[in-house]
Structures are given as C-alpha cells and as structure tokens.
Amino acid sequence: MTILACTCNRTQPIDAPTLARVLDEPVALHHALCRREAAAFQRAARDEGPLTVACTQEQRLLAELAQATEGVPAPDVRPIRFVNLRETGGWSRQADQALPKMAALLAAARLPDPEPVPTVRYDSQQARLLIIGPLEVAQALADRLADVWQVTLLGTGGALEQAHRYPVLAGRIKRLTGWLGAFTLRWVDDNPIALDLCTRCNACVAACPEGAIGLDYQVDLGVCRAHRDCVRVCEAPGAIDFARMAEEQQAEFDAVLDLRPAPAFTQHALPQGYVHVPPALNADARLARLWALRDLVGTFDKPRFFRYQQRLCAHARNEQVGCQACVQVCSASAIRSDAERQRIVVEPHLCVGCGACSTVCPSGALTFAYPDPAHQGRALRTLLATYRQAGGRDAALLLHSQGAGQQLIEQWGRAARLEPAMHGLPARVIPWALWHTASTGLELWLAAIAWGASQVWLLLTDEEAPQYAEALRQQMAVAQAVLHGLGYRGEHLRLLQARDARDLAALDAEVRTLAPAQGVAQPATFAALADKRATLELALEHLIAHAPARPADAVVPLPAMGAPLGSVQIDAQACTLCMSCVGACPAGALQDNPNAPQLRFIEKNCVQCGLCVRTCPEQALALQPRLWLHARRREARVLHEQPPFHCIRCGKPFGTLKGVETMLARLSAHPMFQGAAAERLKMCGDCRVIDLHTSPEVKITDL
User: Fold this and answer.
1) 173 with 187: CB under 8 angstroms?
2) What residues have CB less than 8 Å from 32, skipping those under 6 apart?
3) What is the pLDDT of residues 655-699, one digit of tens each?
4) 80-82 and 51-54: which strand pairing?
5) How confident is the model at residue 633 (pLDDT cuts 50, 70, 90)?
6) What average pLDDT does this structure show over 603-631?
C-alpha cells in the first residue's frame, strides 16, 4: 500500500517516518499535494496496489485528476481511500501529540469495504406529483416543476387560475401513506361542485347571494342558505349537485409536496419522496427542498439496512406482547407489531438506516446490516490496536454520523485553527464516522472497552430523532453499571450533543473536562461477531476476567430500563409448574425437565423481554435485571421444583402435586366433576380412558 500524507501548506505536523514504522507501509510526505505536487499523486495513482491519501479537502479534485490520468485503474477496480487527518488532529492544540491517532485513522482506512447487501428499489418514473396547499402557491410551484413532474393539485383554499392546466382535487384528506413511487392518497369528496366538470365560468360565484362560493370553486356549506341560484346558472355544465353523496376516493402518486404548516406524517424521519415546505420555512431551506424534489424522478436503490430473524424475536408469544423496543424507537414508523404471527414487520422502503432498532433489540433479532456488526467491530478494534501500538494512551472513541456529525467535526477543526479560545479534538480522542450514530449499542461499546478504549462517546446533532438520545442513554446506563460493578473507575460512556456549529464552543469546553476512565489492564483480541449476544458475551467475559474488583455476592444490579441481561424471580408458593413460561420464552432461558417436575433457567440466555411474566397465569414471575458473575450463569439451574403427583390407579407420575391439588380445588364445586369424575382427575391420561370404558354405563332410564 502507498500512503500519501500532506501537511496542507505546512499547517499541520506529520511525522512520516514514525507513521511508516507503525503502519509498516511507506508514507510519502507532501506539502501541496493538490497543487504543485499533483504529479506525485498521479504517479502513485498509476501504481498497482491500494492507495491512501491523507486529505479530504481536495478529494473531489484528486479523484477527477486520477480519472483523467492515463493508466490509473478505474475506481471499482482499485479505489483510492481518503482520510481526514487535518481537522481530526492536525489542527488541534495537541497536534504534536496526535501521531497515534493519525496512525489509527490511516490503518482503519485500509480495511476492505463492507460486504454488499440486498437493495431496496424506488420507482418514480411515472413522475406523478401531488402538491397540497393554498392554490395560488401550489400553482406557482407547479409551473416550476411541470417540466419534470406531472402535477396534480389538492387545494386547501385560495384561488384557482382561470385556465385548466393541472388536475385539481378537492375534499378532506383521510389518509396519506407510502413512499417514493408508491404514495396512496385517500380523501372524501363531499362538496356539491365537481371540479372535473366545472368550467370556471364564475357564473356560480356571481350568482350566490351569500358569497359562499370562492375562487377555489367549492361551496362553503356553513354559509350557504340553499337558495340554489348557483345550480340554475350552472345548468349547462351541470357541475353543481347538492344531492351528490360524499364519496371516498383514492389516487396514486410518486411524490408529494406538502405546503401546509403541519406535515401529513408525524414521525421524525419523513418517507422518501415526501417533501414538506411549511410557510414559515426560511428561503434557503425552502429552495433546497424544492431543488431536491426535481431529482426524485427515476429508479433509485438503497441498501436494505436490516436483517430480521423471527426465531430470535422477543416481541410476542401466545397472544402476549413482550419486547416493543424497536417499534417504540423507530423514527420512521417503519416497524409495526404483528403479534398474531409472533413477529414484527419492517417496511424496508420506510427504513432510513439509523440502526436504532438493532441497538435496542435485546436478542439480536434485528441486526444492522450495512455495515454489519462484524465490520464495525473490526474497524473499532483496528483503530484501538494501532493507536496503542503507536504509543497512544487512554483512547476515547468519538462516534458520529457521516452527515451532520462529520460536518461538525470539520467545523470544529477549522475553529481550533483560527480561534484562540478553541482547542479542537484532544490527541487521545479518535473520531470515527458511522452511517448513523444510533447504529451501535451496548455490545460494541463494551467490546471497545475490552479492546483497550478508555471511553466511548457519541456525538448527536439535530439530525437525530429525540427518541434516539433517550434510547442511547438507557443503553449507556446499563453499560456503565456493568463497568462500575466490576470496579472500573470513571465515566466510560457519554452522550455529547451539539445542534450545529453554534454549540462548538460548549462542546470544545465539555470535552476538555472529561478525564480518562480506567480501562482494562490487558486489551482483548476477540473479533466482533454477527450475533449480538455472542459479541456481548465475549466482551463481558474479558471485562469480568480483568475486573479490578468484584461485588461480594457476585451480582451487579442493572437499570430496569433497557437491560438485556438478568434473572427471573419466582414465587414458589404461587407457581404450579404449568410451564406456560417455558413455551413463551423466545430465548430458551426457561426450560422444563422431561424427567422431573422442574423449571430450569439459563441466565446467560435471558433477554428480559417479560413474556414469561405476562404469560404466567399465577403471576408468579418477576424480572430481575442484573449481571451475575458466577460461571453458572451459562448453565441450567433449577428455579423451582415440586414432588410429582402419582396416578391413583397405576402409580405413574403425571403432574405436580400442587398442580393437581389446585385443579381439584378449583373444580370441586363443578357438577361435572363429582364422584367418579372427580376421581378420574387423579389419574394419568391412559388410566382415565380405561376407567371411562370399563365403568358401568349410566343410562338415562336409570335416572
């Protein structure tokens, strides 16, 4: 591999020989790679093998230069990777100490791209656009979009033009659903004037004595006094009929432009193809949204960001609903409950790829697929291992989004370069861009601590939904409880929030106050796995093995909200060992014993979904969020057992003593279970059948 590092006109210190030694790769140092030293880039681009350029400022220019240079492989054959060292470390107050961080970022850039995943397709080639809003504004925008879209208007007041240029709908919107290429509008047409018949001759407007008809050519029924002058003057077109019944109608559209103050969708992440431009929006934002709308005609693909395994899902069993974490956290309303089929349903066209559902999923039934957990873990492990190899200490991972988060990091670096009061990213803080900040959770954070990180911080901006922050705080509280319970001192996890560049000064000051936390004495070497619970177990094993201290009772209590680990408490007096909880448990944590009336429990498997608690007819179970440090957490232990009840005829055990006694007590007053019938309840299934067929038959004539 060839690495080209540029000091950007000597504004950042880069120790190329030391970087080359740490990375075991040649590092060529430049000072103006994008200008007078561009020929060196062209020569490196022609060579075989991977190429990494430590500059993102001129990424577009250098990519175009490579494309225009003869002999340079195509990007799909040999991609050129660009790494930002300047704003992430070279322009900070601690730039002279940032070499370990630079080495870590360059090493992570060498990793292969994530494995491709299936795609989700949007097809809007029919170019059907619905504009909802005041008619004057809607028509003006339609004129500017008609060269790209086939426009239909749905007026919310205002005045129509005289000329018929666009189809116009009228009525009350009942429902708007869908996504780019597949929107469905349902509305109730309940006005006497049919707009498709109206010629806009204005005779009805002039004839109405109450002025109940406006230039939207709809009758205000609250003002109309039933003179019907409008009907008489509209005799030829016949567009007005007060006897017309209200009718629900439906139409399909590829995109929707909504000009009303409140959007039609209430979720934070609006569907693809739905553009909301409220009247209060500033001119720049308004122009940006309208301009983006022009590019939505065609066929588009995006990654299918999630994988779902129903067999692991703890959402529903036996008509009982347990875990709903993914349904509640989704900001796109892409996940819904299907309790009848014991599953959740994810609509891939609505999914925006935030990954929050996989973060809060306790069982790993939902997995963030692009990039997958194994790839994310590989990147974090590479960062930390290289940072440590280069002599770095007390690494703090700063995870942020590739969008607004990346922009904030770059603005932070420039501010540190220009403003005396700003310090920039400390040398020990390693920023790493994720597709979305909410796409990592408890298992990868604890794995990062096990791999040698001192801290893991998440940077949120105003692009994240409010529920993401709450979900991440709950996950962090659980992770911090685990670390504190094991004796690791300090604050290992923190949520940093900055809406935009206006909050940079406060962010800069906050980061400087965060002291390193105690990490592991010996970093782990395990790799993150595709299975969430497996990765979590590997991280816990390492953290427990190197724990500075352990509680005397070997139990670390965890917060009730968001804890995916724990035990089940049982009321032995109430439990009849009916085993309903065993059938409800989706993780195999609760098990029966086919050879004895026992309820067994494997604590490692429990995801604290609560299905067992909701299913238990005796209400004998309760959840206990905790981390049990004993090795027996991986083994089946007996939660409750009872002596068996023996058949009164053959002596074979067929149930529990308490279960049969409870049944007899409940049925003792029932007329169907008296005498011999009551005795049959004390028999096993085989003897009960034999007794029924061998007992003297009672005939109706004997009564």
Assistant:
1) yes
2) 6, 9
3) 777 778 888 888 888 888 888 888 888 888 889 888 888 877 655
4) parallel
5) very high
6) 95
Which segments of 551-674 are extended strands (E)?
A: 555-557, 566-570, 590-593, 596-602, 621-628, 636-641, 644-646, 653-656
Q: Do residues 331 and 465 make contact, with C-beta atoms less than 8 angstroms apart?
A: yes
Task: State residue 397 phi and psi, 5-degree precision.
Answer: -80, 125
In angstroms, the Cα distances linking 545 to 127, 441, 485, 571, 645 are 61, 22, 13, 33, 45
Are 189 and 295 in contact, with CB atoms under 8 Å apart? no
Question: What residues have CB less than 8 Å from 224, skipping those under 6 apart?
Answer: 208, 210, 212
pTM of the model: 0.88
Q: What is the pLDDT of residues 390-405, one digit of tens each?
A: 999 999 999 999 999 9
Tell me the pLDDT band of 623, cut-offs 50, 70 and 90.
very high
Residues 6+ apart with CB under 8 A from 164: 200
Q: Which residues of 69-105 are buried (b: 16+ CB within 10 A; e: fewer)?
A: eeebeeeeeeebbbbbbbbbbbbbbbbebbbbbbbbb
What does the pLDDT look like over 89-114, one tens digit per residue?
999 999 999 999 999 999 999 999 89
pLDDT (mean) for 283-300 = 94
| Omega of the bond leading into 371 within 30 degrees of 0 (cis) | yes
* pLDDT tens per residue across span 32-44: 999 999 999 999 9
pLDDT at 697: 61
- Could you tell me which residues are beta bridge partners of residue 360? none
Q: Supply the Cα-derived Rg of the chain in whole angstroms.
A: 34
Token pair recorded at residue 27: 């590092």
| Residue 457: both structure tokens together | 């911080």
686 in helix, strand or coil?
helix
Number of H helices, E strands in the chain: 21, 32
Is the separation of the CB atoms in 450 and 520 below 8 Å?
Answer: yes
687 Cβ neighbours under 8 A, 6+ residues apart: 647, 649, 650
Question: 627: buried, middle or exposed (CB in 10 Å: 19+, 13-18, 0-12)?
Answer: buried
C-alpha angle 597/603/609, rounded to 5°? Answer: 95
Please measure the distance between the N-terminal and C-terminal CA atoms of the chain and give it in whole angstroms.
99
Q: Are 416 and 472 in contact (CB under 8 A)?
A: no
CA distance linking residue 402 with residue 129, whole number of Å: 30
- Model confidence pLDDT, tens digit, residues 456-478: 999 999 889 999 999 999 999 99
Rounded-to-10 torsion of CA 196, 197, 203, 204: -70
